[in-house]
Amino acid sequence: MKYIEKLQYITHDIPQFTHIEQAQLACEAGAKWIQYRCLSKPDEELLTDIHTVAEICDDWGTTLIVTDHIHLNGKADIQGFHIENMDADFVALRKLVGNDITLGGSAHTIENMIRLAKEGADYIGLGPFASTNTKPNDLPLLGIEGYSTIMPQLESLHITMPILAVGGIKIYDVETLMRAGIYGVAISEAIHSADDFIEAYQDFYDAVKG
Questions:
Q1: What is the rounded radius of gyration, in angstroms, for the C-alpha atoms of the chain?
Q2: Which tens digits make up the pLDDT trace of 161-191?
Q3: CATH code, domain carrying 126
Q4: For residue 2, is it within any domain?
Q5: Residue 157 domain flag
Q6: Binding site annotation covers 75?
Q7: Which among 38, 43, 149, 162 would be 20 to 30 A from 77, CA to CA?
Q8: Which stretches are annotated as coiled coil (predicted)?
Q9: Does the residue 137 lie in any domain?
């Protein structure tokens, strides 16, 4: 089974920090998992960014996951990909990248999750928990009730893969989510918009690790 970190920081296109600056700050805060999420740049610019982020992650022993862009596999030191398309064929993707690459997928329903588990995803990002400015979408918000309903269903189906809550999570939500059976959380806005990025990351780390 692949290593999946309980606290995952997701970089975004934001005015106050570049993706590289976010990666550097997260690593300085102790991050062991960074998901580079940039859907706005052409491949050449993406690879320039990713090579630098990969060097930072390598210096700190941090896993680097890239959102989508699976065609960049092998072109940079990327440990895995997170696929946001909930209809993506993970059997085909696994054949494309091989068994060593980590593959995570986004899900919103129990049906999404069952399929991802059957098709060999290594972990699932389940959301959105709450509204978020960094990744707006029109999916219904799950809230704690959604997670409290879905997690027992997964257990009854003997699906034990890591499930991470994602989408608008605040520090005070973490304890309740962990009690609901979530493996961990993926965070962006609550960290990068905080007065102190590093302190905010470490607060989430302490909350997730309990």
A1: 16
A2: 999 999 999 999 999 999 999 999 999 999 9
A3: 3.20.20.70
A4: no
A5: yes
A6: no
A7: 162
A8: none
A9: yes
Other residues' Cβ atoms within 10 Å of the Cβ of residue 196: 12
132 is in an annotated binding site: yes
Q: Is 109 assigned a ligand-binding role in the annotation?
A: no
Average pLDDT over residues 53-57: 98
**Percent with pLDDT over 70 in the chain:** 99
Query: Residue 103's domain spans which residues?
Result: 7-209
Residue 49, domain member (yes or no): yes
Ligand-binding site membership of 68 (annotated): yes
- 87 annotated binding-site participant: yes
Alpha carbons 121 and 110: distance in angstroms, whole number: 14
- In the numeric block, which tokens belong to residue 75? 């072109």
Q: In this structure, which amino acid lies at residue 28?
A: E
**Residue 134 assigned to a binding site:** yes
Give rounded-to-5 percent helix, strand, coil for the chain.
40, 15, 40
Domain count, the chain: 1
Q: Is 18 exposed, middle or buried (0-12, 13-18, 19+ CB in 10 A)?
A: middle
List the one residue out of 140, 80, 37, 136 whose CA is nearest residue 150.
Answer: 140
104 is in an annotated binding site: no
Rounded to the nearest 10 degrees, the angle between the axes of helix 43-60 and helix 19-29 is 10
**Chain-centroid distance, C-alpha 82:** 7
